[in-house]
Amino acid sequence: MTRIRQIFAASAFAACAVAAPSITDARTDVYVRVAPPAPVYEVVPPPRHGYVWAPGYWNWNGHRHVWHRGYWVRERQGYRYEPHHWVQRGNRWELERGYWSRG
Fold this sequence. Notes:
Layout: H1 3-19, E1 30-32, E2 51-54, E3 57-60, E4 65-68, E5 71-74, E6 79-82, E7 85-89, E8 92-96, E9 99-102
Antiparallel strand pairs: 1-8, 2-5, 3-4, 6-9, 7-8
């Protein structure tokens, strides 16, 4: 690869990394006009000491809904885990990310 191609490839990669924030970033707001599909049935594993189960949910990858499987989250004493879920507001849908609430 010539030196010019190397520089071009490196600058193109850097531009993409800066211009495309991660959709999985917990601070990213996701608004779409396409309702999420029905939830996928998942078997909840047996309880695991010190963890709570975060159920699967439909995430948005910038083009379509994609299923994100359930996973274990380390328990926080005095808090209750509120899972990811979609809320309809007017003619669009907003993904509310999972979070811990006092409970």
